[in-house]
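Quick start: read one record
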Amino acid sequence: QGRDCLATLPTGFGKSMVYQLPAMWREEMDRPGVTVVVTPLLSLLRDQLRGCEDLDLNAAAWCGTADKRDTERIDRDLRLDADDGGPGIRLLYTTPESLGSNARLRDALRACARNGFLTSIAVDEAHCVASWGHDFRPAYLALKDFRDDVVGPGVPFQALTATATPRVKEQIVSALGLRDPALIATSLNRRNLRYEDVALAHLAAMAKETKERWPGSAGIVYARTRAECERLAALLQDKHDVDCEVFHAGRTGEALARTQGNWAGGDVHCVVATVAFGMGVDKADVRFVAHWGPPTTLEGLYQESGRAGRDSNPARCVMYVGSNELDELRKVTGGGGDAHAAVDAYARGVSRCRRVGLLEHFGERRAGGCGEGEERCDVC
């Protein structure tokens, strides 16, 4: 129908198929058309490209790390008109910064739109527009101007996310300038995940649980800082014989890619990471996700816990937390606010279903606690 849309779908749902399926159809029918996919992380971009290769789907990437020869090839392809058969690329992955500042990319997309071959703009992980755009990724807020100045109103926007509260949805619609968008949503409930809060105990307890309860299974342990990641990984590896590696922004790109590859391939049991190891991590058989200390938001807790159980088999999502850590988080976040209050209420709650608490945070109401066919949380 050519309408803008905002799709709120749970982690592990397969949101990328929203733009990949039409591209696959165009490829099969030999019909030219390009969808631009805006992604927040280069690691996510690379994972998506690998997935397109597996699907024999003609996809390309134009970002700050792209090779000059690749961008020249993409530039020529995007400018092909109907007499030349139109562009061969079906999906073009990029970042908000590249769309906002790369004049050559903008000119090529303007030509593609003018020739009638720019089919849509997909903004993946669209909650970043609200959570990052006002702080350290202002290029997100320029996406509306990109539409107005470069591609025109006839090219629809698709905003896709798993972690948007009702307020964040309003912010996404406003920031992207979505016009009468179709609002598509399913329940964010992940029935196969068991949510637990555990008192922050000695690290040995977590190490023992990691080895005994999840032997040979893939898992992630999240910590808030790089230093804490290094400390936890060293203790788990050296003192408790847990096979793990660290992942945070202080390591080189080559080291991060190697760690992610080792973990995805099953050579490493556990990754100890900051939130840098979040969006775009797509491994089916992750059996546990642990947070060592509270995350800064419930959105983060849901997003990061959502790395678990993507094969639909049971998985556990554990937050190790104590009162001291919650008080420290209040200081780190500048005195609290709504985000801290939500995490605090979730973590300290001893009588309210964890699943219900998470779902209601995103505006999804339900009666009772964990139900039939759902992994029961520690409260239920």
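The chain has a mean pLDDT of 87.
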